[in-house]
Known about the structure:
Number of strands: 10
Low-confidence stretches: 1-6, 12-38
Shape: globular
Radius of gyration: 27 Å
Strand content: 15-25%
CATH architecture of the largest domain: 3-Layer(aba) Sandwich
Structural class: alpha/beta
Amino acid sequence: MSRALSDNIPRILATRxxxxxxxxxxxxxxxxxxxxxGTAWPVKGIxxxxxxxxxxxxxxxxRTMAPHLSAAxxxxxxxxxxxxxxxxxxxDIAAKAxxxxxxxxxxxSSTHAVAPNLNxxxxxxxxxxFAPVMNVNIGPNILxxxxxLPVHSVRELVALAKSRPGKLTFASSGTGTxxxxxxxxxxxxxxxxxxxxxxxxxxxxxxxxxxxxxSMMFDATTSVMPHVKSGKxxxxxxxxxxxxxxxxxxxxxxxxxVPGYESTLWIGLFxxxxxxxxxxxxxxxxxxxxxxxxxxxxxxxxxxxxxxxGSPEAFATQIQADIAxxxxxxxxxxxxxx
Length: 338
């Protein structure tokens, strides 16, 4: 070995050591970037906020989905109920959560399409503050009348209401709810003069409807059908575009004589705005597989709802369309916050 080469060995080794260190740092940086972009997600449990009380429709959907998402993602998905103010409190908490994929939201058309049109001081923006993941399921309402009302179809109800302007009433579980707006839409599209009677919840409304204190009501299938089956109320129509497979004998509002009528409540999955696209698409992929499961479809059917699924883009389009549609109903009816 020459003296010159011998003298340069320490310098050569040092250069190689620096190169190896820089390579390792580069690989670590690439791994960190990949993690930030969601390729290593999830590495811990996920919180799924439900902005409504336990045992309600949205909570049931979330608890039906959670175990299957947990299995697919390899991490526990924990339901966190944050009820209050018609769902806006929990929705706002989700909007302000870190966009890292570890906080998700199961919300509804009430929180993302109705509330923005009713509350000018809403603490979140339903479009700007969220990344839509997937429309999970959709549920129609049913128009029911008190058993003593002498009508057996929507056409007969319309004829009776027009013969008694201002005399018939429709109940709802509260001003600004989808059920209230379903009544306002019916009133507008059928050109009826009927009076809205708001209640603090469906229970009190059903009590007065059954006794005949009010004439009619729109409400969820699961709430309505026990009273229909007992003969205390009469179902006239369902508010979806097509008949419900579990209630095929009930016609749609369109079939019953109100062209273009549709009023449904969707329940969907969201992440905070800014969540990595890779994370959003991973959740979307797994959630789509979940809602296609036979047992999940059957569980939804028992609640009177149907699986939807689809892409984040399709869901975003649905949200924008519903914001516009419910906004028009609210403006035309002059609905104001209580």
